[in-house]
Structures are given as structure tokens and as C-alpha cells.
Fold Cullin N-terminal domain-containing protein.
Amino acid sequence: MSISERTTIDLQLEEGWDLIQEGITKLKNNLEGPPDEQLSSKETMMLYTTIYNMCTKPPFEFDYSQRLYDKFRESLEEYILSTVLPALRGKHDEFLLRELVKRWANHNIMVRRLSLFFNYLDQRFIPWLSLPSLKVVGLTCFRELVYKEINGKVRDEVISLINQEREGEQIDWALLKNVLDIFVEIGMGQMDYYENDFEAVMLKDTTSYYSRKASNWILEHSCPDYMLKVEECLKQEKERVAHYLHSSSEPKLLEKVRHELLSIQHVKH
């Protein structure tokens, strides 16, 4: 391919991308501020058509599918690095959890709306080359750039709130449910992230918590009263699963509670 042909291709890509970038900027502004810049259906169709033409216009060397696929990912990465991470890095405690839930929801909206523009890639180009779908690309961007940075801090805050509830304080069940759903959804059908990054540490903390409680309760209560405490704790842990933990945690959680409370109880009585 001659230099002049290459220049023509690069210029056409640049011109087409400038138009697409305007729509992406509008989407970002809509997510970050008042909903006064929503893209109309006409604008959405125009952007879809632009991308469609850039991917299908002959001759073959003018097919920008791979470059547009790469730019889809780059656009999400830029949004995360410039907007999402700075917002999360300034938050702590429950404010961090609420910001994470908001940012996860916005990210999913961004991916869905961007995917409307880039629909041709999902329909033709991606299946043809067996590439990850646009949805998977979007989720992977969030997982690699956001989740991996903050999941430990988020996990510790969730566990802290669980222990506060165990001590009788009221906590926001819906908030914890939304946060833990992210640990599940980030695994794209696998439970590895929920189990390894949250559940394993939560179960270890549960063991420590009830070990301390058992040491005190066994000195303070008669055997019948102690057994009532055990039953009440098991009931409360089941309720935690119902309200915000994943259902797969229930047998593991109850096993830890029974072991810590009843093994000590048997030693004394």
C-alpha cells in the first residue's frame, strides 16, 4: 500500500472517529451531570451508521473494524482513568461503597449505550474472529482498572459493617447486596472473585468473631441459655444470607458458626 493510500485511510479513520467521539463525550456528560444532553434516537442511529459504513465500505483495506474495536476499549479505559477512579479514590467507609455502586451502574449504562453505536462489531466482526463481545470488553476494563485496585478496601468495609450488625447496629442491607453483587457479576458467570476476594476473608473473620464471643458467653451463661444463643446466632446468619450474602455462602457460614460455638460448648459441658 502506498503512503498516499495509507494517509487517506488514516484521515478517514480520524474524521469518522471525531464524529463518534462527540457522541461518546455526550454520553459521558450525561452520566456525570444532569440528563440534559441525552443522545436522540436520530443521533444514535447516525453514529451506528457511521461505524457500519467504516466497517463495510470497500475496498477491504478501508475496513476499520479492528481499529474501532480497539477504540471501543480505549474509550472505556479513558473514562475510567479520568473520571471513575478519581471519584473512588477520594471516598472511604460507606461513602466508598455507595460511590462504587454508582460507578458500576454508570459503567454498565455506558457499555450498553456505546454498544448500540458499535453494534455492527458485535453482530459481524466479533463472531467472525471469535473475539470477546463488547459487553465482556467493558466488564474486563472495569475489573482490571477499578475492581483490582479497590476490592480489598471494599471487602474490609463490608466485613466491618457485618460485624457492626452482629453487635446490634442497623446497617444498609441493600447497599451491601449491591456491592456483593459486583463481586459476583465481575466473575462473568464464575464465582471465583466472590469466593476468593470476599467470601474466604469473610469466613475467616466470622471464625475469629465467634471464637471471641464463645469464650465470653460460655462463662456468662448456663448450658440451656448458651444453646439458645447458638440458635439465635445461626438464625441471624441465615438472615444475613437472605438479605445480602450470596446463597452459596450459607452452608459455609453456618458451618463456621456451629464449629466455633459448639466445639467450645462441648469442652465445657
Observations:
- The chain has a mean pLDDT of 88.
